[in-house]
Each structure stands twice: as structure tokens, then as C-alpha cells.
Amino acid sequence: MKAFKLKKIVSSILIKHGLSKVDANISSNALINAELVGAYGHGLSRLKMYCDRIKKKVINPKPKIKIKKISQSISHIDANNSIGFVSADIAIKTAIKNAKKTGIGMVAVKNSGHYGLSGYYAEQAVKKNLITMIYTNAPPAVAPHGALKSLFGTNPICFGTPTGSKIPFILDTSISMINRGKIRVAARNNQKIPEGVALDKFGNPTTNAKKALEGVQLPIAGFRGSGLAWMVDILSGVLTGGNHAGKVKDPFDDFSGPQNIGHLFITFKTNLFVSNFKNRIKNNIKTIKKLPKIKGIKEIMYPGQNKYKRFKMNSKNEIKISEIIKKDLKILKS
Asked: Backbone phi, then psi, for 217, in 5-degree steps?
């Protein structure tokens, strides 16, 4: 199915569940973008979850979002338990506006929910010729180094910068070996996950996706990944007023209340310290791409290049929908 048709279907489903037309369009754009860049764990596979949470009244479809202006550069948003796409859209646009005025924009968000891909918002800032850093925390999935119990989320770290070309540099990575969305998709489709990414609830390595969801995901780089997860929990949870230290609720399994996820958006101009950033970043990338390559590597890629290629390719083709997702859409439309 073509992307624009899917967007219309998703928007109509979200409107049916109580979102305004504007908020439904914001959410459907983010969900379909995830499909187009190949991040299926953040796309249509999550639509039913959002609708279930609206039905259970733990996502507020008609939020009264408040923006507190702390200074010309800094704002604090209370999302009023909105769907995460809407609060994140407001936050990145506010951060961009603040940075354009003063050189730097910082926006903290509390009482929000899962907002999809951090890179989706980073691209919006980069298109305005800004550098950005984005943090958000997530439900417990990763055990702190030395602990037996999961507490940190997969807590993505995102950085984006203009490159002087049409393809932005977007690093958007979870601190776990594999993102939780991929494990959920594998579990729904009865597929195995790679070795070395998760333990079952007894602490044994597993390739069973369902057992991995009940157990613990492994962080990248051992204690370093655990430390990065902790850093994100502080920046997006402790600092913002959002839930932290394992208190973010699982959106699929815990309907006892809102998630109260925290986000932190930082944007700043490229010319704060140098006037020739564009030439410098081009030279930086050019130098690295010219390095000798190991066998089998045709090009040294920077973060964001592969995603851009997938987006371009998938935009020309129809989005493939699994039978499980088709079933979800049919039920949600009826």
C-alpha cells in the first residue's frame, strides 16, 4: 500500500479514538516515517498499543499541553499525558524557534508518552541548519551493570547535524544491543532474535523473543552501555520531572496509569563558534570517507546515510504490511 493511503487510514483510526485531526496527522506522519526508514518496531506494529492506551484512558486524546517559558532559550512542557508524537512535535518546534532567536534552544518535556523515533525529530532541526541532541527514557528493559533486575530503558541517544549535503548526519541509537521494538515484532511473528542480545528471566542467553521480553536486554559495550542508559535516565527523567529509575510504565503491558516519560531536546546554531562550519563539516566527512577500507566495504558511511537510502527507496514502492498488522488495521477501523 502506498504511504499516503496508509497515512489516511492511520489518521482516521486515531481520529476515531479521539485525537483531533491535527494531532492524528502528526502521529500518522511519524508512524509511517518509521515504516519508510525501515524501523518497523516503531511503526504500524505500535498503532494498536496507542489505541489500547487511549481506550484505557492512560493516553489523553485531548490534552491541554502547557508550555512554560523559562527564558528566551529554555522552555518546559507539561504534555498532560498526550500521545508522545504530539508533545515531541511541539517540543522540537519550540527548541528550533528558541535556537533561531538566541543561538540555542533547550526544551524539557514531562508527562509524555512513547514518541517513536528520535531521529525523526532530529531531522526537523537539521533541516533548519541546527545541530541537535535528543534524549528520552523508556520502560525497564536493561539491567544496570552488576544488577540482576532490569531497570533502565533502552534509552536512545540521538545526535543530528547538517553535513553540507542533502543527507543529514543522524545518529539515533538505543543503548541496548537491539531495540525493544524489534524484539516485539519478532515475538508477534514467532521469529528468533540474534544471539548475544538478551537473557531470559533466569539469566540464560536466549534467541526466543518472548523469553527475551520477560527477561533482560543486554546493553552495548557492557558497563559503558549501562552508564549511557543511566545518563539518559537522568537527562530525560530526573531533570525534566518525568518518571525515572524504572518507574516508566510498559506501554504494551501496564495500563495502571500514564507512562510519564520525559524527553529533552537541545538545538543550537552551527555558527556559534566558527563562521565556516559548512566547509569544516564537509572536510571532516570527506577526510573520513577517504580512509583505506577493509575488505568487502565499498564506502565508509556516516550515520543517517543508510536510513536516507531506505527512505528514498521505500517512498517509491508500496509499504509491505504483514498479516498481523492487516488484522490490527481491520479491527481498529471497524
From this structure: -85, 150
pLDDT at 318: 87
Q: Which residues contact 320 (CB under 8 A, 6 or more apart)?
A: none
Angle at 254 between CA 252 and CA 256, to 5 degrees: 140
Residue-wise pLDDT for 107-122, tens only, equals 999 999 999 999 999 9
Please give the single-letter amino acid code of residue 201: K
Taking the whole predicted model, whether its pTM rises above 0.85 is answered as yes
